Task: structure prediction
Amino acid sequence: MTPRERYRETINFRQPDEIPWIDHFETEGIVRWIKEGLPIDRIIAIGSEVSCGGALLGSGLSMSGFDLSSYFGSIPMVGHFLPIDIGPIPRFKEGTVREDEKYVDTITEIGSITRRRRGSLTYSMPMFVDHPVKDRESWEEYKRRLNPLDPRRYPKDWHKDSYLRYCEEYQKGPIQVAVTGLYGFGMQLMGIERFNVAFYRDPELVEDMANYWEFFTVEALRDAVTTLRDGIDQVFWWEDMASRHGPNISPRLYKRYLLNHYKRVTGFLRKNKIDRIMMDSDGNMNPLLDLISESGITGLWPLEVNAGMDAIAIRKNYGDKFYLGGNLDKARIARGGEEMRDEIDSKISILREMGGYCAGVDHVVPSDVSLEKFMEYADYLRKKRGFEGKSFPSGSHF
Result:
């Protein structure tokens, strides 16, 4: 099977030739692996670039990043997205707002101010120093950047017939569109503390944000969704709404403020034959899983072990209500050897037979994993992903 066929079979609870492997990598980790011998010429991703030379437009090839998934034989967790812009337009101008010997504070494209340690390349979450929405007035101002009908939300090459062909022909992985969930939306714009307090102190503001989020999400995606329909394999729904010890929002608040808006958005997607919706949230989501299922979300990733998420238990409790990804303890994978093999053995064979599971670590591959340890993990995982009595081509580096 192609990677896309394998992924589609899996998330629809049919049996692929082998379970998909999805992982995501830190920039800092990639740099480390290059220093440790990862061949840079075999992981460079090449893209096209349009440049303006005087009155003429020229095009050529340029490095667009690193493609480790093709090298190792996995499917990128974040990638293969249709280029629909769901951010603020116009963007905020990125730049440094203050710095000292240890830290650099930067304004991001969405208007937040983040703090990182000087010289850090790591993926890890920065400290958020400030956010653009603080009250009704700043929310009304921010809304001007969230016109879902702005033509700049779609790429300059948006031509429906061309994208229909693209969705038919592309096979390197699933075709996806990205969504930011309502809680993630509010958290990004206000910060966790201010947004959570607003549920109690300014519920009218939260209601207005919820109504606008629903309108914005549906209308921004409408043209792509109604055109491509089930040519879109999955909606990737980002919404970090939990920490290690539990959700950041109670079931009561979820049901009152989020649930009906979510059901209308997922209902719009289902009406257009898109019912595979993968929710990306860190932390312990267990207390919310009933409501998440009721909302129309059908997939969960990364299922952090350290936060008490257990893919086998979820499968037993919820059956095929959720397809699952991740849940291999990144700390045990990093230590390698017998501990890594025990982590894979204790889960992969069971989840493979239960169906609806994509193998991978429980979030991004941490930068403290050496290239040797990752190659050991990749090789062992490859041997365990197939079904009994079948053998498959190895990943491209083996």
Q: What stands out?
A: Residues 66 and 149 are 33 Å apart (CA to CA). The chain has a mean pLDDT of 91. The two ends are 18 Å apart (CA to CA). Residues 203-228 form the longest helix (26 residues).
